[in-house]
Design a protein that fits this description.
It contains four helices and no strands. By secondary structure, it is mainly α. This is DUF1204 domain-containing protein.
Length: about 240
């Protein structure tokens, strides 16, 4: 079977094969029953329908293709935006992590400086307390010596009293207290008691020989004395 194409105008006629209408219905109008003008009109209408169908098909296909391309472009744009947003989130998290790390380092350094300053302050305070306590221990000895010296001055009125023998006795007593370091806890409490001012009356300072106790001590003056008086006395004996 051979087919001769027309001129493309949709009006040219082409020979139809013999079995073209073989399987059609019995009431279908064949070209043989039509005149030439009507056959031309049928061919033109058929060609137009075919061309219009192809145009619609092509238009639909082009529209579908454009829509597919547009959808693909939108999908790519959304993917690019998502990737950009994801990168921004990762960059923000990285910056926050760096900022948090720097903040932790600053806090750690500040904490170390604070700890060092606090340790230095406590060490200085402890050293001052120890020195004060050592001084207090010395003051306790000086205070006891001072109280004994007051009684000693009063006993100088007695012609039989020897100041040199009293000094030697006090030196022996002071040498016996060389291990006073082990008595730190009780001494601390006694320091607080001994340095409390003792009120006295005029009759106390002018007491006679019965005012002194067996250790040669008298009542403590109202103002606590913290320095030995024996180092400042120039007595001609």
């Amino acid at each position: 079977m051979s087919f001769t194409p027309g001129d493309g105008s949709g009006t040219s006629e082409a020979p139809l094969p013999d079995d073209f209408f073989a399987n059609l219905l019995s009431d279908f109008t064949t070209p043989a029953s039509l005149d030439k003008a009507l056959r031309r009109e049928v061919v033109v209408e058929g060609s137009w329908l075919i061309n219009e169908g192809m145009r619609v098909f092509n238009s639909t296909f082009d529209g579908s293709f454009k829509e597919a391309r547009l959808s693909h472009f939108k999908a790519e744009e959304i993917e690019r935006k998502f990737i950009r947003f994801q990168n921004e989130v990762l960059e923000r998290e990285r910056r926050q992590a760096e900022s948090h790390s720097r903040a932790l380092i600053r806090v750690e350094r500040k904490g170390r400086r604070t700890i060092v300053a606090e340790l230095t302050r406590r060490a200085t305070f402890f050293d001052a307390v120890v020195r004060s306590f050592k001084d207090a221990q010395e003051y306790v000895g000086d205070f006891r010596e001072c109280r004994g010296s007051v009684g000693t001055l009063w006993k100088l009125q007695n012609a039989a009293f020897s100041f040199l023998s009293k000094v030697a006795e006090m030196s022996v007593l002071m040498d016996g207290c060389a291990q006073a370091e082990s008595m730190v806890p009780p001494i601390e409490g006694r320091i607080r008691e001994l340095w409390e001012p003792i009120e006295f009356s005029v009759g106390t300072t002018e007491a006679g020989d019965d005012a002194a106790d067996e250790g040669g001590e008298v009542d403590q003056p109202a103002d606590s004395v913290g320095v030995s008086m024996t180092g400042y006395l120039d007595l001609d004996l």
